[in-house]
Amino acid sequence: MAAQAFRVMLRMNIHPGMEKEFEETWYRVGKAIVDHPANLGHWLSRDAEEPSVYYVVSDWVDEPRFREFERSDDHLEHRTKLHPYRSGGSMTTMHVVYGMTGAASASHGDR
């Protein structure tokens, strides 16, 4: 992880019963994000306690490039496809100060 990466974390509340369809749609439309030249990675996680709550973490080379993507037609299209599944949520942004890779990362890989 680059030391000054910009991280975006979304909490997404999904309508109960639509979780699987949401996950599949998120995966299909995620190319719009990972293909952006300033994107470092993009992950979807489901809350262990609340099965209709998801977290999306997306890392960017810097904040200005993320904001550029955030205002783009590609982002609008991405959001439009995911909107029907959402019942609410929030967004948090942050600057990564340090990043450390764990010993098991090479054998475990991103999922």
From TrEMBL:
Alphabetized SUPFAM superfamilies for the sequence: Dimeric alpha+beta barrel
Taxonomy, superkingdom: Bacteria
GO molecular function ontology, one term from the record: monooxygenase activity
Keywords for this protein: Monooxygenase, Oxidoreductase
Domain ABM, residue spans: 6-94
Record-linked Gene3D superfamilies: 3.30.70.100
Pfam families, per database record: ABM
First and last residue of the signal peptide: none
Protein name: Heme-degrading monooxygenase HmoA
